Structures are given as C-alpha cells and as structure tokens.
Amino acid sequence: MKSLVLAEKPSVAKELARVLGCSQKNKNFFDGPKYIVTWALGHLVTLAEPEDYDKKYKEWNMQDLPMLPDKMKLKVIRETSHQFHAVTKLMERSDVGEFIIATDAGREGELVARWILKLGRWHKPIKRLWISSQTDKAIRDGFATLKPGEMYENLYHAAVCRSEADWIIGINTTRALTCKFNAQLTAGRVQTPTLAMVVAREEKIKAFKPSDFWTIRADFGSYYAHWRDKNNNGRIFQQERAQEIISRIQGKEGVIEEIRRDNKSELPPLAYDLTELQRDANHKYSFSAQKTLSVLQGLYERHKVVTYPRTDSRYITTDIVPTLPQRLQGMSTGPYQKWVEEILANPIKPGNRFVDDSKVSDHHAIIPTEIKLNLDAFDSEERKLYDLIAKRFLTVLFPPYRYEKTIIKTVVEGESFYSSGKVNLDLGWRNITMSASQEKSDDESLPEQTLQQQEKGMHKKMNKCQLEKGKTSPPPRYTEASLLGDMESAGKFIEDEDLRESIKQGGLGTPATRAEIIEKLIAYSYMERKGKELCPTSKGIQLIDLVPSELKSAELTAKWEQRLTNIAKGKENDKKFMDDIRANAKTLIHSVREDTSTYRADNITKHKCPTCGKFMLLVNGKKGKDLLCQDRECGFRRPEKEPDFGGKISPAEARYNRMLAQKYSDHAKAVTNVGDLLKEALAKKDKS
Fold first, then answer.
1. Phi and psi dihedrals of 382, rounded to 5?
2. What pLDDT, on a 0 to 100 scale, did the predictor assign at position 146?
3. HSE-up (13 A, CA, CB side) for residue 366
4. How confident is the model at residue 204, as a pLDDT?
5. b/e map of 145-178 (b: 16 or more CB within 10 Å)?
6. How many CB atoms sit inside 10 A of residue 548's CB?
7. H/E element holding 40?
8. Please, where in the chain does CATH 1.10.290.10 lie?
9. Of 7, 453, 555, 603, which is the most buried if we count CB atoms within 10 A?
10. SS3 413
C-alpha cells in the first residue's frame, strides 16, 4: 500500500517527491513506489457563503441579521475545484492506505488539509509531517518520525474556530454596517482594533500642542555636561528660570562631587521570530511586512537556507543544539566566515537566552539551516533579509558585550551637571553588528565621552555655558515596524491588570496573519502609506466612530486569540468558544442597528454613474484605481482610466446592463407567474 502525501503548494510537493523518490510526474501529482505526492494550491475548501444556506441572503438586508447557522457548511472553491477533485480521486485509489498531512506545520496548514479530508470523506489512518525546514535531511528525518494525526486534533479545532469566528463576526458586522450606512464598510475581529490603534494615534497627534523648552549644556574643558534638576529632568519650561541659571553659573568654578563607575554587561538580542524580523526589515530596508514574508518564504522553500518562517518563538529547543555546528559550517562563507570560525574555535554552549523548550510551541526561532550557503544565488532583497537572520544567529552565539560605564556629577553654584562616559572592555556580540537600533545606554539623553582621567573632588573651570531651545514633539505616526510591535503586544493597552497578564502572549492576530491585515486595511482605503508612515484615511476614521466599541477593543480580540491558543493546547472547549462568538455577534448587530450616526464619503468624484446618475467614488481596485457608484444597490464599477470606446459604452457598462436586464427579466417572469396563479385561482372560484 502507498501513502498519499498532501503538500500545500506545487513547489513544496515537487521537493518532497524528489526526496521520496516519486519520479513519475502527472498533471496533479507525483507517483512513486511508496508515496503519491499531491498539493492543495492553498485552500481548496472554504466555509459556505450566506446564500448557500438560504437564497434570501444573496440580498443584503438588515432584517436578516445576524446570520447564525447552527452548523457551518463547507464548499469547494470553484477556481481550484479541479485540484480538489484530483486529490479526492487519489484518496479513492485502492492502493492508498494512509494520508500524510504535509501542509505548512501550523494552524492554517492543518485546516487546509483537514477540510479536504472532511469533504473527501477520508476514513483511513492519518499521519502528520511536522518539520521546521525544507532541507533534504529535515524531510527524510520528518518522514522517519511521522506523528499520528490524532496529536493535532486540537490544533484543527482551533483552526476551525478561528475560521468560523471570522465568518460570523466579519460577515455579520460588515453587512450590518454596509446596510445601515449604505456604504461599502467592512469590519473584523483583528482588522478593526488594528485600525483603531492607528486612528487613536492620529487623534493624539492632531490634539497635541507643542511647548517650548530649554536645556543647558556646560563645557568643562576636558568634558561637557548637561544640567539636571533634583528629579533628573533636563528640560526647563520657563525661559526666565533658564536664563537665571545661566547668568548665575556662567564662568564659575565647579566641583566633581560624585563619580560612579560600573562594569556592565549587555546580552545579545534574542533570535528572530517573524514579527521581529518584519519590524527590523521595515526599519532598516523599508520592507513592508508582506514583502518580508514573501522574501522569507523564498529563502525557506526555494533556497532552503532558513527554517520555518511563520513562527512566534525567539528560542530553540534542546534537540536543535547538536545541529548548531552544522548550521554554522553551512553559512561559513563571505562576510560570515570569520565570525563562524571564531564561534567554532570553542565548544558551543548556548544559554537559556537562546535555548528554552518551554518557550517554543509549534516552531522554534528563525535560524539558518545546514544547507551550504551560496550568496550569488540570492537577489538583492533575499541577500538583505538573509543578512539580518544570519547576523542575528551569530550574535546570539557570541559572548555578552562588556563595558565600563562612568557617570560624573559636577556641581556649580548649587546646580548639578551630569556627564556620561563609556569604555569598551569586550565588544563581544557587538563585533558583528553595531547598528544604531541595537545601541543602548543607561541614559540616552547624555552624550557618551571618555571620562577616565576625572576624579572626585577635582575643581573644574566652566569654559562655556549655552542655552539650547527645543520643542516637545507629538507621538510619531505608526510605521509598519511599530504597528507590528503593538499588534503583537496589544495587551499593554488593557487597563485590567489580571486580564493584561492573561493575554501577555496573545496579541492581535498571529505572526502569519499580521502582514495580511495591514495590507487589507490599505486595500480597503482605511489607511495609506506616506513614506514609511501609516496614516488613517477619512473613511478609516469614520469607520472607527461607527463600529461598536466592543469590536475595536484590543482587549476582546487579543483575548480571543489567547483562547484559540488554549483550544489548540486542549485547555479550552471549542463549543463554548463558538457559543460566545454567536452571542457576541447578536450584541454587535444590535449595537449597529441602534446607532444614530451618519457616514459621509470624502472620495466622491465628478464622474456620474451611467446607470443611476449618482456621483461615483474613487476606490482601490485590483489593477489600480476604480470608479464605484456610491449607491451600493446600484454597484456599477469601472476602472478610473478606461480606454475611449468611440462613443460606445464600455465593456464594464455592457456587462452591468446585461446583469440588470437579466435581473429585471427574472423579476418580470416572477410577476407573470404570480399573475397566472391568481388568474387560475379566480377561474376555479368562478366555477365553484
């Protein structure tokens, strides 16, 4: 008997087939002596649409909400139905005795396979391939240690809950908002609170009123210092007070009253998880979160030089430690060779800052594989991203950075001036990278200088004292880096201390979905990129005013994500979770229905809709900007820049006119049928 192996993508299936000796290539699968390898093209099965439950749901009406099916149905995705039928046909083969799930090793990958198995009515044994890299060795080892499918039942239940919750909350609130305000508005359990954070930041920026302040800098010849008050604050908000201090101390002699020298040690940064890598790539290279994930996927699948991308852990497990020398040898080339040789010169003893089994759930941190590195095979983006991963991997294996920190307090006429100095003792991991983003000091507002020659009790003549004016700054707008960080640590926005602690490991979305959420908010015109900054649009700001407060709360959505994690671990009942989701949907719909707010589109153009005559909206389309009728019941849409058709109607208008003709034709037939029935009934009545 053979094993049927399901990969998530054709490219992965091809690699699995090669390693497993499946040399006979067919249109939809690879065949071999022991294995048949096929693929899923992403999701082949999805949740049914509202109209699949009842035809009346094809029309969007507020009175039909909320839609809460007792049991959620599945359907085959039409665009990829050919591959679904190919997979199910393989499942029916008499020589297939077991099914091996080899989709992405995570919640969504489990859902991809399990829904296919469910609709395909598979009843034979299921096994699971769970690997963190795509190297030949990892694949062989993975197939040698396949796990029973039952081990991942809870992960599947969590995936189903996530999908059904998104359907129930997303579709119901989207329809409610759209019907209520006659505009194309969407909402979701993750995208809405994410947008709410961006809007809240913009409101703080707009409400901010800058204030002038002054600082005092003194030059003592061999060093300089900054004034501080008794509370260690260096800003003076009254110019008169600052001038008074200057006039009193100018040219006077000071005394070094205090010198504090401490030997300090700075540990290397943690290894990368997906979110932290996306943040650094955005900060350093202006990569969007989606771009980082896309490039990273290529390094993982095509080049096989890094481990599984969609991880939320920054640690490795103890079983990975013996593989570290091979991974280092694999990347020992070009700019990394000297650092690798230095690490391998001694036994590798990574500490608990890198190795911690308790902090790894599905996948460990993103680290290099043992594959021999060929930098010439990378494009420029792949090279940049690999460089971040490689250097982070090397730094975490290097010793701490050690330095001597000196703080001097110089007093002049009762006023205190502070100086900060640093002397490097051992650069340690900072030999590899000295980027500004990793630099930290005890007091970043004090400039660094060498203060080795200074001693307590020394008298110091003040050569110069100057007043410097500044202005307070508003909070910065979000970048993708900072937004990803706040999505990951959404718990910090929660006031309740117990709840904040309970969802500390939660956050908005998952590492795998956060990039997609940001892209959706931009595609829906709720926010836009301006350079590196993310700015909410008028539509986004209005939406947050219209959405029920409960849905835009980081507290609610982060709590849901934590509950999904608990379901995956078998710590919570999935039915109870879905009962709560249904109850929540009822509350949200009632809130929208009772709302008395109004919505006003600010993207109205001077173009009139050719079917209803209303002015059209300028919106984001799949291939640029589109013009869309503001009346959702009309729904006419066409590209903003459509070719001249010589006075004839455009293809878009022709398609729409045909749709209307069909709609009214069906309506006319229905009326005719009703009329015929009435005539027949009256005729029977007359006869009687």
1. -65, -40
2. 97
3. 30
4. 96
5. ebeebeebebbbbbbbbbbbbbbbbbbbbbbbbb
6. 21
7. none
8. 274-396
9. 7
10. coil
Half-sphere exposure of 28 (CA within 13 A, CB side): 16
* β pairing state of 624-629 and 637-639: antiparallel
Q: Which H helix or E strand runs over 624?
A: strand 624-629
Task: Please provide residue 608's backbone torsions phi and psi, each rounded to the nearest 5 degrees.
Answer: -95, 145
- Cβ(74)–Cβ(45) under 8 Å? yes
Q: Which of these is catalytic: 152, 308, 315, 336? A: 308
CB atoms within 10 A of CB 237: 12
> What is the Cα–Cα distance from 305 to 11, expressed in whole angstroms?
16
Q: Let me know: does 559 contact 499? Beta carbons within 8 Å.
A: yes
Domain 274-396 fold: Topoisomerase I; domain 4 (1.10.290)
Residue 308 annotated among the catalytic residues of the structure: yes
By the 8 A CB rule, do 510 and 312 touch? yes
Pairing state between β 35-39 and 2-7: parallel
Gyration radius from the chain CA atoms: 32
The single residue listed with the structure tokens 């065949």 is 31
Determine the Cα–Cα distance for residues 687 and 38; give it in Å rounded to an integer: 68
Q: Are 216 and 466 in contact (CB under 8 A)?
A: yes
Instruction: Give the pLDDT score at 442.
Output: 41
Helix (H, G, I), strand (E, B) or coil at 593: helix
Alpha-carbon distance 218 to 231, whole Å? 19
Whole-prediction pTM value? 0.82
Q: Which residue has the tokens 């009254």?
A: 238
Give pLDDT, residue 451. Answer: 84
Q: Using CA atoms, how far apart are residues 128 and 446, in angstroms rounded to an integer? A: 56
**Burial of 638: CB neighbours in 10 Å, binned 0-12, 13-18, 19+:** buried
pLDDT below 70 — which residues of the chain? 434-448, 491, 493-506, 622, 642-688
Is 278:481 a contact under the CB 8 Å cutoff? yes
Q: In Å, what is the CA distance from 654 to each residue of 422, 446, 605, 651?
A: 74, 69, 22, 5
pLDDT of 644 reads 45
Q: What is the CATH architecture of 212-268+401-471?
A: Distorted Sandwich (2.70)
Question: Which amino acid appears at position 116 of this protein?
Answer: I
Coil/strand/helix, residue 411 = strand
**If one looks up domain 2-145 in CATH, what number appears?**
3.40.50.140
Phi, psi of 142 (to 5 degrees): -65, -45
**Distance in angstroms (rounded) separating the CA atoms of residues 379 and 502:** 43
Place of tokens 């991997």: 393
How far is residue 409's CA from residue 402's CA, in Å, rounded to a whole number?
23
Structure tokens at 63: 């009175």
The fold of the 164-206+477-594 domain, in CATH, is Topoisomerase I; domain 2 (1.10.460)
Q: Which residues make up the CATH 2.70.20.10 domain(s) of the chain?
A: 212-268+401-471
35 strand-pairing partners: 3
